Amino acid sequence: MNARLDLMASPVAARTMKHLIAAGKALADSTLPFATQELVKLRASQINGCIDMHTKDAAAAGETAVRLHLVAAWREATVFTDAERAALELTEQGTRIADAAGGVTDEAWANAAKHYDEEQLAALVCTIAVINAFNRGNVMIQQPAGNYQPGQFA
Q1: Per-residue pLDDT tens for 1-30?
Q2: Cα 12 from Cα 111, distance rounded (Å)
Q3: Whole-angstrom Cα distance, residue 153 to residue 147?
Q4: Of 65, 68, 106, 60, nearest to 84 (Cα)?
Q5: Distant-in-sequence, close-in-space partners of 100: CB < 8 Å, separation ≥ 6
């Protein structure tokens, strides 16, 4: 299977992707815990059907196999902190905006705000937005999974 389009071969797409990659690097340097960033990226990617990169990156960064396998069932799992659960809920609601007439609920936002300061909330929102942009692009062009190597776009 081949992708419909090589984004890096298109001048406009390559410039755009470089900015998205730079945004991801800026977020990696934020005060939002790195483990939370990886869990958020993985959960949004699971919802969007685009998990190859984020599973591998999280594992390479030291995330445990148990937690990686349980991200999809985070509500029932006992391996996530309350803060991580709040971030995962915000991720699901922010990723599935079209599924809810009101978007992200006040309850989900308030719960996240109990665990993260304004700078971390900003990083959380931006992480969710950036990963969804990447995922949607990959889904549209039918980017095949399996060949990604951890740190490939670092």
Answers
A1: 788 888 888 999 999 989 999 999 999 999
A2: 39
A3: 13
A4: 68
A5: 93
* Residue 33 structure tokens: 């815990």
Assess contact for 13 and 21: CB atoms under 8 A. Answer: no
What tokens appear for 23 in the block? 């945004």
Cβ count within 10 A of residue 51: 21
Residue written as token pair 């006040």: 106
What is the token pair recorded at 134? Answer: 């990447």
Q: What is the mean pLDDT of the chain?
A: 90
pLDDT of residue 102: 75
Tokens of 4: 């419909």
Rounded distance between C-alpha atoms, residue 114 and residue 22, angstroms: 29
